[in-house]
Design goal:
Length: about 650
């Protein structure tokens, strides 16, 4: 089955001898760049282009063309080569289009030698870019995969090659264009449209809704972390346009058999509903290119449905209240209505009308809740480990994954009108902001209050559960956890992480431990930032840990001086962009001694609580969602079993 990739998605390759087919509608230059493990091009001899079309294991077209076929033999690649980037560029100086936004969205397919498509990618959303890295074949642990990239450069080939660390980028770009101009007369024209519209595609029209700020689903511009509360997804195929419309801007091409915004939903597995009955829910019946993505989108849709249904109910009740108040005011403002039973009758009529409107609204809400409840009953057991509660049987079949999942479950969400219905709270990975586990006094949704000692204990247990889940969903060796416990107050709760050996080092204690860990991570952020900005990622020190890093901080501000607080703020602000994440287990009142310095930190992190609390604001429809943490059931050994497997995988990886 062909995998239709979206930008950033990867797919395993089961064959080593491949063809890469390109269709662009206008003549483009197809080149291939070889990279080492860090993606760096070692020299011009690592680039296959029309002037030098063959390299070991690789052959590209000798001229600009509307269609290309590139031959790749991954087994013939030199050992130093770990990446093969497929690059498309518009020829310059020949009167052609200046940017990909004015041509058909290029289509790239990776096929076997028999022509069967393995993976495809449509490069949508391009505008002024004149060169683009379409996709990348890369080697990981001895196996090859393909990743859809779609990264464009307005400065053309020279800028693209410079960005990949080639010192002779401008000279090579000029040589490539010279070779293209010489062979342009032999370029293959765009093929005429065939009856079935083969290789004419529409531009994906998927539009992602706004992200939340302080809302249940995080703060990134990707489907699912903008929240079900603050995000929505709307996207449908754009109408077909003729080529004559190009003067008005980018052209959208329509393919009668291809839908690029999302694949068709899988066929339902449940029997069809009887006439008059609501449709029976099926796990994974949302759109997506994998079951994981379909389940993610289905959970997202359930959140939106619950938000809309609850908003409609509350709006109807507000309308009924306002209408009754208005009618009662009219009755009481007329002195004649106060005589006899006229006023009482008017009041009873107004109250009856109010009750009727509220009952109608509640009936509609209950109908929606019943359908969502039935959907939750089939979706919850089908969720993968990253999305599942700790009591889901999927954890008993847990194996350390080979790929990082799309998202992670941090807990459940519900609103008062739907007390039994829980929607998984998923955040996208990698995390784009840290977490604040609130250990201060707070009221739970059922009115119970925990004392300070209990809250700190519950907060650490919650932090350990979140940390264990983050470790469990990442491949071996790709997630490293550091712990600061200056006073040692979290030793009991941290014992599952310490005993299993999944931590990078024992929890750091005292002011010296705080300074050492913060200094190490601050230096790491500085080094990676400099390497990325300078385009010299391969210059990082030997043995540098490239895994994502998580710093868990307990007992704040014990053991912290002003310098340590400044470093903490720096890690929270700059760390996520280079793979360093923060999890604070703290009480905001304890940090008040630092004045306004830490207030942005508290506001910038995603605040979670160890008990049910309705603190998550949803700007989309104005709800306050009640959050319940994803905790391990009392007496369950699942956490220790999972951590044992993670530790064993880390040992084997090392």
């Amino acid at each position: 089955m062909t995998a239709e990739l979206v930008r950033g998605q990867n797919h395993p390759l089961s064959q080593v001898r491949l063809e890469i087919r390109i269709s662009a509608g206008k003549p483009v230059v197809a080149t291939a760049v070889l990279g080492d493990e860090s993606g760096r091009i070692h020299g011009v001899e690592w680039v296959a282009h029309p002037g030098v079309p063959t390299l070991p294991g690789l052959e590209v077209s000798r001229q600009a063309a509307a269609d290309h076929r590139l031959a790749v033999d991954l087994d013939a690649m030199p050992e130093a080569v770990h990446r093969v980037g497929v690059v498309l560029a518009l020829p310059t100086g020949v009167g052609g289009p200046a940017g990909f936004g004015s041509v058909a969205a290029p289509f790239v397919a990776v096929t076997g030698l028999d022509g069967a498509e393995i993976a495809t990618f449509t490069l949508t959303g391009l505008d002024t870019e004149s060169a683009v890295v379409a996709l990348e074949l890369y080697r990981r642990r001895g196996a090859w995969k393909v990743r859809a990239v779609g990264q464009g450069y307005a400065g053309g080939l020279a800028e693209l090659l410079t960005d990949q660390g080639l010192p002779q980028a401008h000279r090579l770009a000029a040589e490539i264009n010279e070779a293209v101009v010489r062979g342009l007369a032999r370029s293959v024209p765009a093929p005429p449209r065939t009856p079935d519209g083969d290789r004419s595609r529409q531009t994906a029209g998927s539009a992602l809704g706004p992200e939340q700020s302080g809302s249940p689903y995080g703060s990134q511009n990707t489907p699912g972390q903008g929240a079900h509360g603050a995000q929505g997804i709307s996207g449908s195929p754009e109408p077909a346009q003729s080529a004559s419309a190009s003067a008005a801007g980018p052209i959208d091409y329509s393919h009668p058999r291809r839908q690029n915004t999302a694949p068709p939903p899988p066929p339902p597995t449940a029997p069809p509903a009887q006439p008059g009955e609501p449709a029976r829910p099926v796990a994974g019946d949302a759109t997506g290119w994998s079951m994981e993505e379909r389940l993610y989108n289905q959970v997202w849709g359930m959140f939106e449905d619950l938000a809309r249904s609850t908003a409609a109910y509350r709006s109807a009740v507000d309308f009924a209240d306002t209408r009754m108040e208005k009618e009662l005011d009219q009755v009481l403002s007329d002195p004649r209505s106060r005589i006899g039973g006229q006023g009482d009758a008017a009041r009873e009529a107004a109250q009856a009308k109010h009750s009727r409107l509220v009952d109608q609204a509640r009936e509609a809400l209950d109908r929606d809740l019943g359908q969502l409840g039935a959907e939750a009953d089939v979706v919850e057991p089908a969720l993968p480990a990253a999305y599942a509660r700790w009591d889901n049987p999927v954890w008993h079949a847990y194996r350390v994954p080979m790929e990082m999942p799309m998202a992670l479950r941090l807990g459940d969400l519900h609103v008062p009108e739907s007390e039994p219905l829980r929607i998984p709270m998923l955040v996208r990975l990698p995390l784009e902001r840290g977490l604040w586990i609130d250990s201060g006094r707070t009221g739970s949704s059922d009115g119970l209050f925990a004392d300070s000692h209990d809250m700190r204990r519950l907060a650490m247990e919650s932090a350990v559960a979140h940390t264990a889940r983050l470790l469990a969903v990442h491949p071996a060796g790709e997630f490293t956890v550091h712990v600061l416990d200056p006073a040692g107050s979290g030793a009991r709760e941290l014992s599952p992480l310490v005993r299993s050996g999944v931590l990078a080092a024992p929890p750091a204690a005292g002011a010296a431990g705080v300074a050492a860990i913060l200094g190490q991570l601050t230096e790491r952020v500085d080094l990676v930032q400099m390497a990325v900005r300078g385009g010299v990622a391969d210059s990082l020190p030997p043995g540098f840990d490239t895994a994502q890093q998580l710093l868990v901080v307990n007992d704040f501000p014990h053991g912290f001086d002003d310098r340590a607080v400044t470093q903490l703020r720096y890690l929270a602000d700059e760390g996520p962009a280079v793979g360093v994440h923060l999890m604070m287990v703290a009480d905001r009142e304890d940090a008040a001694g630092y004045g306004p310095l830490l207030d942005p930190l508290w506001r910038g992190l995603l605040r979670l609580t160890p008990v049910a609390d309705d603190h998550l604001a949803d700007p989309w429809v104005g709800h306050a969602w009640t959050y319940e943490p994803a905790l391990v059931p009392p007496g369950s050994q699942v956490l220790q079993q999972v951590l044992t497997q993670v530790a064993a995988a880390r040992t084997n990886y090392s």
